[in-house]
Amino acid sequence: MTIFKSLFFSSLILLLASCASMQPTPYTMAPEKGDFGYTHTKLTDTKYRITFRGNRVTDKETIRDYTLLHAADLTLEQGYDWFYIDNQDMETNKKRVQTGTNVGATTTATSTRCGLLGCTTVHHPHYTGAIIESEEITKDHVNVMTVSMGKGEPTDPNRVYDAKALAKNIRSTI
Q: Fewer CB within 10 Å, N or C, the chain?
């Protein structure tokens, strides 16, 4: 039983250490779909869906800024000057974690079984109570934005983002 306790506490310490050292997701391309960072999907010649997934310690404002920054970078890469946002949605994914704690007295029932080769004694622990706690933990935040891109003078300049200016301004803050 002692080896199981030490394995449990070692695992718990490693888990807590990894949580304490978790850093916000940087502005980077996601290695694979569903990983942290940005991805994009071409919908038409001038329309893209851009996604940025940040870990639970990355604040939502930063995730929105990184999504905008990738929209600006992509707009410039595709040879366009500006973009506007068709729609945008921020989602927070959570998971439910349950933990149990034994309370009350612990007793042990003992039984002995005998057969042709001898007897075996088995000890059965018995707990008189437990507390089960349930908690929701944030896994990540995901911002999905659909943008349309254009060149030259936009018909409605109040509705669009200048890609070059936006990229410069957001980069100056990260």
A: N
Q: What is the DSSP string of 59-89?
A: -HHHHHHHHHHHHHHHHHHTT-SEEEEEEEE
3: alpha, beta or left? (left if phi > 0; alpha if psi -120 to 50): alpha
Token representation of residue 101: 């704690």
User: Is this prediction's pTM over 0.90?
Assistant: no
CB 145 within 8 A of CB 69: no
Residues 114-129: what's their mean pLDDT? 74
Three-class DSSP category at 135: strand
Three-state SS at 52: strand
At 143, list the tokens: 């911002």
